[in-house]
Every structure is written in C-alpha cells, then in structure tokens.
C-alpha cells in the first residue's frame, strides 16, 4: 500500500463514517436501531452493490467482531445505572443462562423436525440466534422510559448472554460438544461465567483505586486509561484464566461506571464515541461480508420460520421459565420477551462456523443476516407503543443529575461540574437550600451564554451548569447531597433520600 492508496482509503472511510453519523438522527426519530442503516451501507459497498468491494475473510471478521463487542460492552457497562441493575441482576443471569438454553432447545427442535435440518446446523441456528444484542438493547431501550427493573434486567441479560452462546457456538462448530457431552459443557459455562465475573470485579475494584490515586497529566488520558483497563479485563480473563472475557469486561465496566472517578463525564463521552465507531465499523463490515446474490427465497422462508420460533415461541418460553422465581407480572414478562432485540451479536456468532469451515456455514450466515434485518425492523419501532399498551412505562422516572469530577491536587480539593437536567428537582432550589457540607463552595453558575458568581439566594434553573469546589474528604458526601436534592428536592433529608443507589 502506497500513500496515494492510503489517501483514497481515508477519504472513503471518512465519507462512510460521516454518512453513518448523520444517519443516527434518522434512526433515532424512527425508533430503529442504527444497525439497519449500517448493514445497508455495507451491502451497498460490497461486491453485490455499487461499491464493488470484495470481502470474504470470515476469520478476520470474527476477530474484529469480538474486538468491537468488547468496546460496546465497555460503553454499556460504564453507562448502566447500577441502582437499576443490582436488584435484577439475578434475573439477568437466569435469562442469560437458563433462558438461552430454553431458546436454543426450542429453535433447534423447530429447525430439525419442522425444517429437516441436521442436528449440528439446527443447534447452531438456535445458539446463534438466541442471545440479545447489547448495542441494540442499549440504543433503543434508553430512549423508552420503561420501569427501571425492566431496563436493568434487559441490559444485564444482553451484557452477560454473550459468554455462554460464544462458548456453545464454538464447541458445536468444532464438534467438542458431541465428544465431551452436555454435562461437561454445562460445567464449563458455569466456570467461565462465575470466574469471569469475579475476575472482572477484581480488575474493576483495583482499577477504581488506581484511577483515584494517580494524577494523570491530562484529562484526555483518563478515558484512555479506563478503556485500556477494560481490555485488560477481557484479554486477561481469556488468556490467563480461560474464562469469559465478555463477562469480565462487562462486570469491570459496571464497577468503573458506578464509581465517582475523575473526569467521569468526559470518560463516558469518549467511550461513547469509540463505541459508536465500533458499531459503525462492525455493522458495515458484516454488511460487506454478506452476499445478497447468494440469498434465495428458501433462505428467506427459513429466516422467517426461525425468527418466529426464536422471537415468539422460544423467547416467550425462556422468559416465562426464567421469571418463575421472581414473580414478574405477565405484562412485564411480555415486554421483556418482545424487547429481546437481536443485532450484531447473532451475525458475529455466525462468523464462527464460517471460520471453522462447518458444512452449510454460509447458509447459516445468510439466514441469520436476513433474520436480524427483518425482526429488528419489526421489533425496534414497536417497543414504545408496546410499552404503553402493556403499561410498563415509568412516568415518574428519576432524572439523575450529571456530575463530573476534576481533581485539584495542590488544594486537596475536587471541582465538580454539575448539570441540572430539565426534570431535576434542583431547579427552583436556592444555593443556600442545598445545605452542602462545610467548606464546599458553588463558585460559578453558567446559564445560557453567561456565567456569574452566585450567592446563597441564587435560584437554580433547569439547564444550569454549576462549578462546585469541594474538599476531597467531603467530595462523596457532596455528590450524594446533590443527587438527593436532584431526586427529592430541598426536603430530600426529610423524605429519607440520601443520594445513594436505590434498591
């Protein structure tokens, strides 16, 4: 590759990225996961489209797909609200294990007995299509104000169900399941998930202490450090302990996300941008890998049958069985069932049989590709309407105040940057009514295009940004107090609101 060729590649890549970014607004208005636009772009750039780019390296697609999923899971964990996920984590774990097993069994039986496929192909189709996709779930559900426990359960499931399905698809593709038996596979899944999650927690705990104690030379280094630690969690778990790197990186990101770290909002913004880049690159690459000319009507029919089996029969059965110990009402079960969105994960998993040279692997990939397109187009836009019909919307959702932390080492203090959301109860509260700890000062209020130094009688408004200087020993207490007032108003203490994570 010479410089001229590199220039052409950079020009084409920048143009594709810009179009993809603009397309986010369109998909957001329509309630669609952006993956549909990106897959279409990949198809247009591929050998069957005007772009004419030939790409058929399944092993490279498999490796890059896993790397992109690590970034997407990192962003999901960092931005997940721990107070929503913690109470429903057991349900998320059951959905990611027992639920996946039920779904795989239903789809495999339909594919074998109804469609006449051999057992290896049938089980692969079940394993590939059963997991929900973190990128699709995070991007769609965070725009729908559903009850926190439903959102938490769906996010926890999508973050954890990659691990057992990756293992199952790999073992079936290599023929190891038949050799070692179901009991060995079940034990391996438990080991990889449990030890992977524990490893991720330890790395996250160490990372929080490290980031808090090391003063880096630039605010831009904090996001890079956190992203590096997330990749260490993934790769360390996979290489050193042979456990699920996906479970490890998701748990590490959850721990980092709930901690009050320096430049927290800047880190989230950076990782959010990298996650969008990973999603765009991943979906465009998978679109390039697909071959529309190879897809026939028979593949479309199989995709419809498998899609109905996994989305309606398998998913509803999986949720019903998984929810038995938790006594979820039927309307919440129905919403969780329909909101189990597929996306990049099934298509990435379909590259594993391709890379292993499994018979009919190209047909499995084509069927899964069509299934994801059709059912994402059906499920995504219907979720807001369905949430209203099933009465699972959270009309009194808490609006969290966003607080970023910048260390002032020489003063032994931290500067908190606080933004007042439109629905926060900080709006209408006087500075003096915040009752912040001693030594804490609200040094500046930024309102619209002007900034001013407030006094104790200054009334906060929605949209204000505050700069609050807090001595390091009372920083956490200050953050808790600001969150408490944001949730419950000036009388937060009387209402028992302390600003901590809520059950």
Task: Estimate percent helicity.
Answer: 55-70%
Label the overall shape. Answer: globular
CATH architecture descriptor name of the largest domain: Up-down Bundle
Contiguous uncertain segments of 5+ residues: none
Helix and strand run = HHHHHHHHHHHHHHHHHEEEEEH
In percent, how much strand structure appears in the residues? 5-15%
Strand arrangement within the widest β-sheet reads: 1-2-5-3-4
Structural domain tally: 2
- Strand segment count: 5
Radius of gyration: 24 Å
Stated plainly, the CATH topology of the largest domain is called Na+/H+ antiporter like fold
Most strands sheet: 5 strands, antiparallel
What's the tally of helices?
18
CATH class of the largest domain: Mainly Alpha
Helix and strand content put the structural class at: alpha+beta
Mean pLDDT: 85
Distance between the termini: 56 Å
Protein architecture, described:
This protein has 18 helices and five strands. It has helices at residues 3-30, 35-45, 58-79, 82-85, 89-114, 119-129, 134-141, 148-160, 162-174, 176-213, 221-241, 245-258, 264-289, 297-323, 330-338, 344-356, 361-389, 475-488; strands at residues 402-408, 413-419, 441-447, 450-452, 465-471. It has two domains: 3-390, Na+/H+ antiporter like fold (Up-down Bundle); 415-494, Regulator of K+ conductance, C-terminal domain (Alpha-Beta Plaits), CATH 3.30.70. It is of the alpha+beta class and 503 residues long. A five-stranded antiparallel beta sheet has the order 1-2-5-3-4. Helix 2 crosses helix 13. The mean pLDDT is 85.
Give keywords:
503 residues; alpha+beta; Na+/H+ antiporter like fold; Alpha-Beta Plaits; 18 helices
């Amino acid at each position: 590759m010479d410089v001229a060729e590199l220039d052409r590649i950079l020009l084409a890549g920048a143009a594709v990225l810009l179009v993809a970014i603009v397309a986010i607004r369109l998909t957001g208005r329509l309630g669609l996961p952006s993956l549909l636009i990106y897959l279409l772009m990949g198809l247009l750039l591929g050998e069957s489209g005007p772009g004419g780019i030939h790409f058929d390296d399944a092993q490279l697609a498999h490796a890059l797909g896993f790397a992109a999923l690590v970034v997407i899971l990192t962003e999901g964990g960092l931005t997940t609200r721990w107070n929503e996920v913690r109470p429903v984590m057991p349900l998320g774990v059951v959905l990611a294990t027992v639920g996946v097993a039920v779904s795989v069994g239903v789809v495999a039986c339909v594919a074998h007995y109804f469609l006449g496929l051999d057992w290896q192909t049938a089980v692969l189709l079940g394993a590939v299509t059963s997991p929900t996709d973190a990128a699709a779930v995070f991007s769609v559900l965070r725009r729908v104000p559903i009850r926190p426990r439903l959102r938490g359960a769906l996010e926890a499931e999508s973050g954890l169900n990659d691990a057992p399905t990756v293992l199952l698809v790999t073992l079936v593709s290599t023929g190891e399941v038949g050799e070692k038996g179901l009991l060995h596979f079940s034990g391996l899944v438990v080991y990889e998930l449990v030890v992977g999650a524990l490893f991720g927690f330890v790395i996250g705990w160490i990372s929080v202490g490290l980031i808090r104690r090391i003063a880096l030379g630039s605010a831009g280094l904090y996001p890079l450090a956190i992203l590096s630690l997330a990749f260490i969690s993934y790769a360390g778990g996979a290489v050193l302990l042979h456990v699920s790197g996906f479970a490890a990186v998701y748990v590490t990101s959850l721990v980092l996300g709930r901690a009050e770290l320096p430049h927290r909002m800047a880190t989230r913004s950076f990782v959010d941008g990298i996650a969008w880049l990973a999603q765009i690159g991943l979906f465009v690459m998978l679109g390039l890998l697909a071959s529309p000319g190879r897809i026939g009507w028979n593949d479309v029919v199989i995709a419809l049958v498998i899609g109905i089996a996994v989305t309606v029969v398998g998913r509803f059965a999986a949720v019903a069985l998984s929810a038995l110990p938790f006594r979820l009402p039927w309307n919440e079960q129905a919403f969780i069932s329909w909101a189990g969105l597929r996306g990049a994960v099934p298509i990435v998993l379909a590259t594993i049989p391709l890379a292993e040279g499994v018979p009919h692997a190209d047909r499995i990939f084509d069927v899964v590709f069509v299934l994801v397109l059709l059912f994402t187009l059906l499920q995504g836009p219907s979720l807001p309407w369905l949430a209203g019909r099933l009465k699972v919307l959270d009309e009194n959702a808490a609006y969290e105040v966003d607080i970023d932390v910048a260390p002032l080492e020489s003063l032994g203090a931290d500067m908190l940057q606080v933004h007042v959301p439109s629905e926060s109860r900080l709006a209408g509260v006087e500075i003096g009514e915040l009752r912040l700890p001693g030594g804490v000062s609200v040094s500046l209020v930024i309102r619209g295009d002007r900034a001013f130094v407030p006094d104790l009688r200054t009334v906060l408004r929605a949209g204000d940004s505050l700069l609050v200087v807090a001595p390091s020993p009372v920083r956490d207490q200050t953050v808790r107090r600001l969150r408490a007032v944001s949730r419950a108003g000036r009388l937060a203490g009387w209402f028992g609101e302390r600003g901590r994570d809520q059950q």
